[in-house]
Model the fold of this input.
Amino acid sequence: MANSYFQFKKFIIHQDQCAMKVGTDGVLLGAWVQVETAKQILDIGTGTGLIALMLAQRSHATITALEIDQSSAEQAQTNIFNSPWSDRIKVICMDFNKFETNQTFDVIVSNPPFFNNSLNSPKKSRTVARHTDSLSYNNLFAGIAPLLDNKGEVSIIIPADILNQIKEIAREYHLFPSRQLNIITKAGKVSKRALISFIFEENPYTIKEMFLEKERHQYSKEYIELTKDFYLNM
Done:
C-alpha cells in the first residue's frame, strides 16, 4: 500500500484521498518544465498538487491547478495550504473540457491520463485519473491551444510509443515540439516515457535521453541533478 504522505525537501504531499499517488512521472515533469520567466501557469489534472507545488518552488508565477476529482482537489488544496506558496496557487475542481477563462498562460503543464485500451480500475476515481476516456489527447490540445500565450510553452509526459501520434495531434492545433527528453530506466532498456514541450512556432529541436539509474538503486548523475532540489535523499 502506498504511503499516506510523501515528504519532499520543502513541502509534504498527503495522498490518501487521491486516486493517483506521487510517482516518478510527476516529479520528472515538475523538475523539467521551463518556468524561469513564467508569470501564469496552468496545471491540468493536478492530482495531489505535486507539480503545481514543484513549479511554485521553482518560480514566482501564479498557478491555476485544475482537478476533476473532488477528493483529490480537496487534498491538493490542503497540501497547498500547508506549503510556503499557498498565496500563489489556486485549485479549481473542474473538468478541463468545461474550463473557460479569458486569461492566457505562458506555461501549461499536464501529466495526462494515458491508459487508452487497458482495463478500467474498479475504483472510478482511479479510472478517471489513469484513462484517456475522461480527457483524450485531442481534447487536451484543443483546450490548450486557445489558453496558451503566443510565446508560451506546454509540457507533458507521455508513453514514448505514442510520441508520433501526439506530435500529429499537436500539429493540428499549430503546436510544434520545442524540447524532448526520452526517459530510460537504465542502460539496455528502451524508453518508456518521454517529456515533450510544444510551442506555436516550428523550429529544429534536439531530442535528448536521460537514464534514471546507472545500476539498480544507483541513480544517474543527470537524474540526481534534475531532482536534487526536491527529493530528500538526492
Summary: Confidence is low (pLDDT under 50) at residues 115-132.
